[in-house]
Design goal:
Layout: E1 8-15, E2 18-23, E3 27-32, E4 46-52, E5 55-60, H1 62-65, E6 78-83, E7 93-98, E8 103-107, E9 112-114, E10 126-132, E11 138-140, H2 142-155
Parallel strand pairs: 5-7
Antiparallel strand pairs: 1-2, 1-8, 3-6, 4-5, 6-7, 9-10, 10-11
Length: about 160
């Protein structure tokens, strides 16, 4: 009989006004910020591409994808490299700009609760907001982010 998982190692990824919470297994690496190569005609949230492991991967601003202002890079800015969940993103990886180094946490039902006070549109790259001890991170819809990247990559 399969053992029931009750705890997931997760990362809290800092944004300008909050954090993302994601399973650690979705992340390939966290690297220092590097100036991306711009993509002509792409929306502002699709910042461009950056080299990683011998290939150019898409780099996006999660804040920008949510319709918010895109923060400028600083000395604390990092790039969180994700494993693509599907086959939409060519090369199988993409990056999201982080406003600092992600924090490793152990998420379990005792500390993570759904926050029913927030709802997001169907086209939003956010699944939901959760309450976790003294903060309220959001769970990103990584499949939606990949779809957005795929649509823009095809258009370019």
């Amino acid at each position: 009989m399969a053992e029931r998982v009750t705890e997931i190692y997760s990362l809290l990824v800092p944004l300008v006004d909050g954090r993302l919470i994601i399973p650690r297994s979705c992340v390939a690496e966290v690297v220092g910020f590097q100036t991306p190569s711009e993509m002509t005609g792409a929306p502002p949230w699709y910042i461009g591409t950056v080299p990683w492991n011998g290939k150019a991967i898409p780099l996006v601003s999660f804040e920008g994808a949510c319709g918010q202002m895109i923060p400028p890079a600083s000395g604390r800015t990092r790039i969180v490299i994700f494993h693509a969940l599907g086959t939409r993103v060519e090369g199988g990886n993409f990056g999201i700009v982080s406003q600092g180094f992600p924090q490793l946490v152990r998420a379990n039902p005792d500390v993570v609760k759904a926050d029913p006070n927030h709802s997001f549109s169907e086209r939003s790259p956010i699944i939901c907001r959760v309450r976790m001890l003294n903060e309220s991170p959001v769970i990103p819809d990584l499949e939606r982010v990949e779809q957005l990247i795929s649509e823009e990559t095809r258009a370019a």
